[in-house]
Amino acid sequence: MHRRHLLALAALPCVPGDAFAMERPLIAAAAALQPALEEAAPIIAVQTGIAPRFAYGASGNLARQVAQGAPFEMLLAADEVSIQKLAEAGHTRDAGHVFAVGRLALFAPRGSALDPAGGLEALRPLLAVGRVQRFAIANPEIAPYGRAAEQALRRLDLWEALRPHLVFGTSIAQAAQFATTEGATGGLIAYSLALSPALSARGSFSLVPEALHDPLRHRLAMTRRASDAAARLQSWFLSPQAAEVFARHGLQAP
Questions:
Q1: Contact predicate 108/114, CB 8 Å
Q2: Are both 202 and 229 inside the same structural domain?
Q3: I need a labelling partner for 241 at 20 to 30 A (CA). Which of 99, 104, 131, 154 fits?
Q4: pLDDT score of 2 more than 80
Q5: Does the residue 253 lie in any domain?
Q6: What would the pLDDT profile of 230-244 be if each residue is shown by its tens digit?
């Protein structure tokens, strides 16, 4: 990954000007996007002369902060509802654009009784014999991946049996942390996080069938305080170059 990243940067045109004078808009971003945006940030700087600052969290929490006047110039949400509500209330310039589609993954840390290769159904026999301890998902009330997790578990009639064992992360990133802690059976996390070196070294995962939950369509929009730099960033996030970066992190093109 590091070598490919350096080669990509070497192939990009150099942006003139003082690097220390780069524009630095503050962007709110769903936690599932962090691995992709960490790779994208230096590429964005070289291609656009902009060095965005990212604040990560659950899409619902970030949208609430935008509505309360937080100094974000753009929201990259893991769903569409968060953006649509902001647009209806007049907090964004428009209804924004879908820029990626995420996937939900079933993750189990090393040593867990759960084998993700068996899918969510592998939880059923473990629940029957009391072998499920803590199982992590993001809070469904604020996190799109948490909502998708609840939908998938309900559609397989696993929600009520699993509910006493659930631990809720305030974001999908925190849920991923909970899923790797000692004594955890596993969790439902973002595919983009399951692919990260930090998690892939600590366990295994399988993709949850998309038919089990609503699509995780990631939408972005500029806020009313957006600058020209934010507008240029939006163009980059909707570009083929961005789609390539997102795809490397398990985020499909819309």
A1: yes
A2: no
A3: 104
A4: no
A5: no
A6: 999 999 999 999 999
Per-residue tokens: 29: 């971003």
Q: Does one domain contain both 73 and 117?
A: no
Structure tokens at 60: 């619902």
Q: How far is CA 84 from CA 125, 182, 224, in A?
A: 40, 39, 14
Q: In what order do the strands lie in the sheet with 26-30?
A: 53-57, 26-30, 74-76, 216-222, 97-102
Domain that residue 127 falls in: 104-207
pTM for this predicted structure? 0.91
Sign (positive/negative) of CA torsion 71, 68, 54, 52? negative
Could you write out the three-class secondary structure of 114-140?
CCHHHCHHHHHHHHHCCCCCEEEEECC
Q: pLDDT above 70 covers what percent of the chain?
A: 92
Together in a domain, 200 and 224: no
- Tell me the C-alpha distance between 231 and 5, whole Å: 25
CA distance 102 to 218: 7
Q: CATH no. for residue 76? A: 3.40.190.10
Residue pLDDT, tens place only, 155-171: 999 999 999 999 999 99
Structurally, how many domains does the chain consist of? 2
Place of tokens 């590091």: 2
Q: How far is CA 81 from CA 61, 96, 131, 213, in A?
A: 13, 11, 36, 15
Residues 92 and 112 in one domain: no
Two tokens, residue 59? 């899409």
Residue 254 lies in a domain: no
DSSP alpha helix (H) spans, the chain? 2-10, 34-48, 59-67, 81-88, 123-128, 144-155, 159-162, 172-180, 191-194, 197-200, 228-237, 240-248
